[in-house]
Write a structure and sequence with these properties.
This protein is of the alpha+beta class. 21% of the residues lie in helices and 42% in strands. Strands 1, 2, 3, 4, 5, 6, 9 and 10 form an 8-stranded antiparallel sheet that branches. A two-stranded antiparallel sheet has the order 7-8. A hairpin with a 2-residue loop joins strand 2 (24-30) and strand 3.
Amino acid sequence: MAFKEADIKSLNFNPFTKIGSEWMLITAGDESGCNTMTASWGGLGVLWGKNVATCYIRPQRYTKKFVDANDIFTLSFYGPEHKQALSICGSKSGRDCDKVKEAGLTPYFVDGTAAFEEADMVFVCKKLYEDEIRPENFIAKENDEKWYPEKDYHTVYIAEITKVLVRE
């Protein structure tokens, strides 16, 4: 598997489809240990003069430990042929099994972090900011009730996209 670096301004994809419908993997860690999780919430844009990605991780997710312990993580995007693999990565915990192996994914290490060879595109991200979603800040209170019945509020990570890799 080979990736080539791409200019972020040359990308032509719909983030609403890529994140919301096709999903992405959030991956952190290195050769000594890494973990990944499927995400269908997130955003892309410009903040503080940088190209950024925003992602959300609940406190009970094992991947959070790896994102918190490292400055760099990846967001990776896949074609529809990998939907089952992403489903496995979203429904099983790396605490309990080798879900990467079960999903049939091949680790790919870049810039001190991990992604997977099967990805069509990988964003290498450097953390800039994190904060917890707080119930008192909901203006639309129904979102607190609907999405957080267990009160397990996400941590929000804003990260600079430092590198974009695309499948060759």
